[in-house]
Amino acid sequence: MIRRYLWTLDRCDQESRSGLSTEAELVDVLTAADLPCVMTPDWLVATMQMDIESSGLAVHESTLEAHDNWKLQLKLVA
């Protein structure tokens, strides 16, 4: 079974983006978004998957300066 995630990416001074993607597609989206982060996109998704397993929803917010702030929300759909 292929797992799909409903995701929303909010970035400071940019329009929100959202979609329904597989893990690989989501990693590609995050790579293209070039988010300022201490983790690579694949590690970010893997870390968030652990939160999804316990609560069904994962949220990661950056703690960078205001102009670099972003927030990613993931929910497992299937």
What would you say this structure looks like, in words?
The chain has 78 residues and is α+β, with helices and mostly antiparallel strands. It is built from two helices and four strands. The protein has a four-stranded antiparallel sheet with strand order 2-1-4-3. The radius of gyration is 12 Å and the shape is globular. 15% of the residues are buried. The mean pLDDT is 88.
What is this structure's SSE topology?
Blueprint: E1 4-11, E2 17-22, H1 23-33, H2 41-55, E3 57-61, E4 70-76
Antiparallel strand pairs: 1-2, 1-4, 3-4
Features:
78 residues, alpha+beta, 4-stranded antiparallel sheet, globular
The tally of strands reads: 4
Would you identify the regions where 5 or more consecutive residues have pLDDT less than 50? Answer: none
Query: From the alpha-carbon coordinates, what is the Rg to the nearest angstrom?
Result: 12 Å
For the report, how would you describe the main beta sheet? 4 strands, antiparallel
Q: How far is the N terminus from the C terminus?
A: 8 Å
Strands side by side in the biggest sheet: 2-1-4-3
Element order: H for helix, E for strand: EEHHEE
The 3D shape can be described as globular
Chain-averaged pLDDT: 88
Structural class, by secondary structure, is alpha+beta
> Roughly what fraction of the amino acids lie in strands?
25-35%
